[in-house]
Amino acid sequence: MCKGLATLPASCLERAKEVGTRLSILLLKSESSVSRSERKTRIPGRSHADEAPKWGGSLDTLLEHKRGVAAFRSFLRSEFSEENIDFWLACEEYKNTKTSSKLTLKAQKIYDEFVRVQAPKEVNLDSHSRESVHTNMTNPSLSCFDPAQKRIYGIMEKDSFPRFLKSQFYLGLFKQA
Predict the structure, then answer these.
(1) Which residues of the chain have pLDDT under 70?
(2) Rounded to an integer, what distance in angstroms lies between the CA atom of residue 167 and that of residue 118?
(3) Which of 33, 38, 44, 129 gets the most CB atoms within 10 Å of its CB?
(4) Angle, alpha carbons 166-71-133 (nearest 5°)
(5) What is the CATH number of the domain that holds 124?
(6) Do 39 and 102 have their domain in common?
(7) Are residues 39 and 20 in the same domain?
(8) Quick check: 87 and 110 in contact, CB under 8 A?
(9) Given this model, what pLDDT does residue 100 score?
(10) Each residue of 139-164: pLDDT tens digit?
(11) Is this structure's pTM higher than 0.85?
């Protein structure tokens, strides 16, 4: 796994630059694909480069911005931990489930994809959080993933997010301004 910039192997630096370049292109494409009506209602000169400084305030702030989530996801992908943001977002979407008939199906899908031991995108949970979710699966509710989601949020907030703020992914957005 790639760590701080000073200790990165050349292959990780190259991968980070490649992903950063792709992210810049993606963000520029999304900016150019904005409809005319959206451009008219927008504050002049406002772009993703204008939003980026806000993302540094907190992980919550970053997660409120679509482009912030995209940038953070690309960074996590470069660190081979994209499953964290995917799980967190899946839990957020799950909480918006309206019908109880879909609740069980969605809960099982999230459990099988992220929580189950040896899951395809298994997230790093302590045994207590994993067991809590497992127990909650007998009768899924909108809050059945809360312990695990809080744990993953904590990992992202304390570990991944500070590295993101020091990364070329984030710092490169300022250079585009």
Answers:
(1) 1-49, 176-177
(2) 30
(3) 129
(4) 100
(5) 1.10.167.10
(6) no
(7) yes
(8) yes
(9) 84
(10) 999 999 999 999 999 999 999 999 99
(11) no
125: tokens are: 């949970």
What type of residue is 116? Answer: R
Largest CA distance in the chain: 52
CATH no. for residue 70? 1.10.196.10
C-alpha distances out from residue 28 to 8, 25, 88, 165, 175, Å:
27, 5, 26, 20, 13
List the domain range (segments joined by +) for residue 133: 82-155
Q: How far is CA 62 from CA 18, 59, 70, 142, in A?
A: 22, 5, 10, 24
Q: Which of 72, 31, 74, 76 is nearest to 49 (CA)?
A: 31
Q: How far is CA 150 from CA 95, 123, 130, 156, 157, in A?
A: 14, 12, 12, 10, 10
Query: What are the percentages of helix, strand and coil residues in the chain, rounded to 5?
Result: 70, 0, 30
- Report how far apart, in Å, the C-alpha atoms of 170 and of each of 54, 76, 88, 109 are: 11, 12, 20, 32
Distance CA 57, CA 54 (A): 6
